[in-house]
Design goal:
Elements: E1 6-10, H1 36-48, E2 55-57, H2 64-67, H3 73-79, E3 87-90, E4 93-95, H4 99-119, E5 124-128, H5 149-161, E6 166-170, H6 177-182, E7 189-196, E8 214-219, H7 225-243, E9 247-252, H8 269-287, E10 291-295, H9 303-316, H10 337-346
Bound molecules: zinc ion (ZN).
Length: about 350
């Protein structure tokens, strides 16, 4: 296995963004998108010893001008408002006292990662930050997302770092509507979204999406490792090869995991490892290995830390800390006919 120089962006200031609990306060239902997602991930990275083998990259605040490459100025103004108490901006989108700092670091960290990869300081990088970004549209925050980090990074890579064609592969279980919409009329940015059909947002992510370079792969609930493998082979890999990007960005949301509370898929940690291996191989084939992954969703505190660790190990070319899925959900194996049909419809 070839060792690679892998950058890691992680900054505890991203813990400061807080979403409100569900229901009445006395029920104390924790929000899905919460700081513990990152804290538990970092404990897993520490415990595994991988931090000795990756290069920490700084998360700097993204400059406003970069945000406005893809977002309306009024949108940027709204999400960076820093209210004294939690404020609901839109559907499942809240801001509070620490939100602007976290959101700016999540995007700025992604820019640092792209800069490092394009300059050749590192071969690839993983940005472990929050809030996530892929639902955020040009003028609207939604679905836990305030600023669309991969979209900003793609455009910034083109304007500031000489990338011509950028591919964004979004494997979060939800449709990457924000990213798709931002680049709908732009043939220089390919957006691919693998997601559970009809999940979130309602009414988007179908095969009928019109645009210059859009690939949607809606998959039926219950799809596991084997169904996703088929989708990579039949749709994702041919699409990226045909597009021939000079930078590959991954919207790495780990909420297709079998234990995730927000998705109904059946992916295991070896499944995520395989996706990362395929992504690394694609980047090596198409664009000199230049790959930056950004954490989107992933809400199972059982699966998320292990999946993030497995992905980082693959990026760095390290042997896996564990072979099997340490969570041990009962999952279906094999490919069902409805999965095969869904993949062929997208191919
Ligand atoms: Zn998601």
């Amino acid at each position: 296995m070839a060792r690679r120089r892998t950058g890691l962006v992680f900054d505890e200031r991203c813990f400061g963004h807080r979403n409100p609990p569900g229901g009445p306060p006395w029920l104390a239902i924790p929000p899905f998108e919460r700081p513990e997602r990152l804290a538990a991930t970092f404990r897993a990275l520490e415990g595994s010893g991988i931090l000795r083998h990756v290069e920490r990259l700084p998360a700097r605040s993204a400059p406003r001008a970069a945000l406005e490459l893809v977002h309306d100025a009024s949108h940027v103004e709204r999400v960076l408002a820093e209210p004294r108490a939690t404020l609901r901006l839109d559907h499942e989108a809240w801001i509070g006292p620490g939100s602007a700092t976290a959101a700016l670091l999540a995007v700025g960290g992604t820019l640092e990662a792209v800069a490092g990869v394009v300059a050749g300081d590192v071969d690839n990088a993983f940005v472990l930050a929050r809030p996530p970004g892929h639902h955020a549209e040009a003028a609207r925050p939604m679905g836990f997302c305030l600023l669309n980090a991969t979209a900003v990074a793609a455009r910034w890579a083109q304007l500031a770092r000489g990338a011509t064609r950028v591919a964004i592969l979004d494997w979060d279980v939800h449709h990457g509507n924000g990213t798709e919409g931002i680049f709908r009329d732009d043939a220089s940015v390919l957006t691919i979204s693998l997601h559970q059909e009809g999940l979130y947002p309602p009414g988007t992510g179908g095969l009928d999406a019109s645009g210059e370079a859009i690939v949607n792969v809606p998959l039926p609930a219950g799809t596991g490792d084997a169904g996703y493998e088929l989708a990579f082979e039949r749709v994702v890999e041919p699409a990226v090869r045909a597009f021939a990007p000079d930078l590959l960005l991954i919207g790495a949301g780990q909420d297709a995991a079998a234990s995730d509370p927000l998705g109904r898929m059946a992916v295991t940690v070896p499944g995520f490892r395989s996706w990362a291996e395929r992504a690394v191989a694609l980047a090596e084939e198409c664009c000199g290995g230049r790959l930056v992954a950004f954490l989107e969703g992933g809400y199972s505190l059982r699966h998320l830390p292990a999946a993030n660790l497995a992905i980082l190990e693959v990026l760095a070319g390290l042997p896996p800390s564990f072979e099997d899925d340490p969570v041990g959900c009962d999952v279906p194996t094999g490919v069902r006919e409805i999965e095969r049909a869904a993949v062929e419809a997208a191919a």
